[in-house]
Write a structure and sequence with these properties.
Oligomer: single chain
Number of helices: 15
Largest sheet: none
Structural class: mainly alpha
Keywords: Membrane, Transmembrane, Transmembrane helix
CATH superfamily of the largest domain: MFS general substrate transporter like domains
Protein name: MFS transporter
Number of domains: 2
GO molecular function, one term: transmembrane transporter activity
Mean pLDDT: 83
Organism: Deinococcus terrestris
CATH class of the largest domain: Mainly Alpha
Subcellular location: Membrane
Number of strands: 0
């Protein structure tokens, strides 16, 4: 995710209300697609006979969105926000059509890759629009509105998607959003007309990040494919992907990330490990519930929707603790939150794999997401406080990119295991990997006090 443009020196007039409506509706569509797709993926893989590519359905979207966010920033800086928004909307819509009409799993993965390229640009768009098109007095309110626009899809998106798939088809989840985008696009694009901004230092900085972002996405993709491929080819791709990821990450993340250097590097590492653990599990949990325990897509959608609600509750709880105990409690809140998350993940794994009754997955996933809400947001506040003055925009990009990278790799690892092992063993190992990440995140959080 690119850095946010600096606020203009001259007063900014209030934009037309259509811009706010178009922006929020665009966020709603992207958020719904992002939250809903995991629920219907088991049916997609079954109908298209593409279980071997299951992990790529998530990884392709995430990795291309990482590059799409930087590309959207470059277009916005050099051609104007209308061009950036129009390009991202068109690409996202094209990806929805390709995915919804896909005759094979390979084409479906291609559609997900195209969707991610557009979604990355649309995900970064609100911050650029709010900074450059809204007066100072309205920015906080619009940022809150954008955050709230993610709330409803997180709560009901998985459930609605599963109901649509049961009543009609999983394809409706994708191509059914295209007419909505066609109605929303003019509301968002028309108020963004205007001359292209002058190219300055920020545009040059964004362009400098374009190739590292592409290299990181390609390297992580090679790593994911290497894990899925057997033999020497797979080993070579893993080595190449790991080396490329390490080299390109040095341009995008602070020094000391991999060794958990105190302060900001540790905060970023904790965020990545937490995302790997919970969101990585989220990528294969519906399939595991469906294949191992016979749970319907609607019932699996209820699990994910309950998780979205309690993640929100956890965020509210940590905000109340922050207000009462202050910033000094952040490192402790991170550790407590990640401890709850690890406990919830372990219990969820036991419920899915048969060690506990199936009903236990509901409170277990609620506990995991509650802990994530507490620990994740507390860690974000810690990271923001640890950043140097004037670096908040760059930090926002680092926070988003480490999350996308880790979730993409986690989904790829889960998909590789599903492709290469019997399903029960594959899910057992996948749960073990994500649990290990949760424990490492909890241990790494102990170094936050040194920042």
């Amino acid at each position: 995710m690119p850095a946010v443009s600096a606020a203009p020196a001259v007063p900014v007039p209030a934009p037309p209300r259509t811009l706010g409506a178009g922006l929020l509706l665009t966020v709603l569509v992207v958020a719904f697609e992002s939250m809903a797709v995991g629920t219907v993926l088991p049916r997609v893989a079954d109908e298209l006979r593409g279980l071997a590519l299951y992990g790529w359905a998530s990884s392709a979207f995430l990795l291309s969105s990482l590059f799409g966010a930087v590309l959207g920033g470059v277009l916005g800086d050099r051609r104007g926000l209308m061009w950036s928004a129009g390009f991202s909307l068109a690409v996202f819509a094209a990806g929805l059509l390709v995915g919804g009409l896909a005759p094979t799993m390979t084409v479906f993965v291609l559609g997900r890759l195209i969707q991610g390229l557009g979604a990355g640009g649309l995900g970064a768009l609100p911050f650029a629009v709010i900074t450059t098109r809204y007066p100072e007095a309205q920015r906080a309110r619009m940022l809150a509105a954008v955050s709230s626009a993610w709330l409803l899809p997180a709560l009901v998106g998985p459930l609605i998607a599963s109901l649509i798939a049961d009543l009609w088809s999983w394809r409706t989840v994708f191509w059914g959003l295209v007419p909505v985008l066609a109605l929303v696009a003019p509301l968002c694009l028309w108020p963004l007309r205007g001359p292209a901004p002058r190219v300055g230092g920020r545009a040059e900085s964004q362009t400098a990040l374009l190739w590292p972002a592409l290299g990181l996405a390609a390297s992580a993709g090679a790593l994911v494919e290497g894990l899925r491929s057997p033999g020497l080819l797979g080993g070579g791709l893993v080595a190449l992907g790991a080396a490329g990821t390490a080299l390109t990450a040095r341009r995008l993340f602070p020094v000391g990330l991999l060794r958990f250097a105190g302060g900001l590097p540790t905060a970023l590492a904790v965020r990545g490990l937490a995302a790997f653990a919970l969101l990585g599990t989220n990528s294969f949990l519906p399939l595991a519930l469906n294949e191992l325990r016979g749970l319907s897509l609607t019932a699996a959608g209820w699990v994910l929707s309950l998780g979205g609600a309690t993640w929100t509750l956890g965020s509210w709880v940590q905000a109340q603790v922050e207000r009462r105990l202050g910033a000094e409690s952040r490192p402790l809140r991170v550790r407590v939150g990640l401890g709850l998350m690890a406990t919830g993940l372990l219990t969820s794994a036991l419920a899915v794999l048969g060690g506990l009754p199936l009903w236990a997955v509901y409170p277990a996933w609620v506990l995991a997401c509650l802990g994530m809400g507490v620990g994740y947001n507390s860690n974000s506040l810690y990271a923001l406080a640890a950043a140097d003055p004037g670096e908040s925009g760059r930090l926002s990009g680092q926070l988003a990119n480490i999350e996308v990278l880790c979730v993409a790799v986690a989904a790829g690892v889960g998909g590789a295991l599903i492709a290469r092992l019997p399903l029960e063993r594959a899910f057992t190992v996948a749960f073990g990997v994500t649990l290990l990440a949760a424990v490492l995140g909890w241990l790494a959080a102990g170094r936050l006090r040194r920042g």
